[in-house]
Amino acid sequence: MTSLSRRAFATAAAAALASLLVGCGGHQTDPPTIAPPASKHEGAAPPPSRSSAKEAHALGRSVPVGLRIPAIGVNTPVMRLGLASDGSVQVPPITADDRAGWYRHSPTPGQTGPSVILGHVTVGDYGDGVFRRLAELRRGDTITARLENGKTATFAVNAIRTVAKADFPADEVYGDVDRPELRLITCGGPRTGDDYRDNVIVFAALESASR
């Protein structure tokens, strides 16, 4: 992805994701409000360090088809997500066979830029979602994306943040970066019915890739 393409994605994401629906619970009508990056708020964690993972060369574009996170027992197929009719980002459907979903207007895992993958923490009457343990990840844990072309991209976690949906850090999540990075997003925090107050966001950087 060229720098021009990355800037275009970041600009488009900031606009389209003003009504982002992040995969959370048993329904899909609970958008966070886009606000200034959470790091600008009192008590917020700093943005992830750019030196916390080994340097790795970027890959070409190839759609993710699987995601493994050994530390929390995730091994899931990955579906493609686009935009809903109201302009919001789609989330995976509420089904017993829960899967993660890659936002197809973001870079693919291993490309330069922030690749965005969403998942549910709960799936209504079906129980736990694929990202139910996302908040348990720790710095240095690995995340491996399996790509459609047979290659793999392995990322190292460098930050895990829980932020109020009202303070969703859109610039940090979707903003332009100069290396391959990954964002995993679900819901968290206090729950009232099917609603969660917060978002859990995992930031990771490419550590190695098969070629």
TrEMBL record:
What InterPro entries does the entry give? Sortase, Sortase_dom-sf, Sortase_F, TAT_signal
Molecular functions per Gene Ontology: hydrolase activity
Can you name the source organism? Streptomyces scopuliridis RB72
Cite the SUPFAM superfamilies for this sequence.
Answer: Sortase
Q: Which domain of life is it from?
A: Bacteria
Residue span of region Disordered: 28-57
Q: Where is the signal peptide?
A: 1-28
**Name listed for the protein in its UniProt record:** Peptidase C60 sortase A and B
Sorted keywords for this record are: Hydrolase, Signal
UniProt-listed PROSITE patterns: PROKAR_LIPOPROTEIN, TAT
Pfam family of this protein, just one?
A: Sortase
